[in-house]
Amino acid sequence: MSIDLPAAPAFGAPIELHPTPEVLRFLATRRSTSAVTLTGPAPTEDEIEALIALAARVPDHGKLSPWRFVILDARAKAAFAQRLEDLANARGDARAVAKLAKLKTPPLGIAVISSPRAHEIPEWEQQLSAGAVCTTLLYAAQALGYGANWITDWYAYDSEAKAILGASAGEQVAGFIFLGTAKEPPLERERPDPKALTTRWVG
Predict the structure, then answer these.
(1) pLDDT (tens digit, 9 = 90+) per residue, 69-100?
(2) Domains along the chain with CATH numbers
(3) Would you say the pTM of this structure is higher than 0.70?
(4) pLDDT per residue over 28-59, tens digit each?
């Protein structure tokens, strides 16, 4: 699918606010696609560049950009998965090996790395911004018509696995966004009752 984004506004330019019912319709039916059901084609290089540009427009208190992206194309992802499999096998951890299926199957992955800065903005807020990057990347990919799945498994938290990915000390993997074409439409899952999760503060 071709992608035709408007040019990014110039710094300080007024941004018009107007209703966008098509976005509301998208959000009302949005559904992640299981990583193990993703196949090719994956987003093109131009689409990847656009997706990252969109994801970088998230709320970011302090304008710190406390996150970065690691693209795992098919070749790189296969090599990364092999090193993780070697690591898990060396530990005798068959369960960890089995969990690599979600990493191995999709044709493309983008890791979002939370990289908090030393700043008066609390680290927690910087980490939340990285989570917003994951969400926006997921939504943008799906808006392009691709299947997408946000995954955090053992290799997002394991120190040796993070080192293989290239995460530095103090960095965390906010998520792996796996992308591709859905083999079949995802089925709707059970959703929470928003009313049961909502209160009004009355003082």
Answers:
(1) 999 999 999 999 999 999 999 999 999 999 99
(2) 35-181 (3.40.109.10)
(3) yes
(4) 999 999 999 999 999 999 999 999 999 999 99
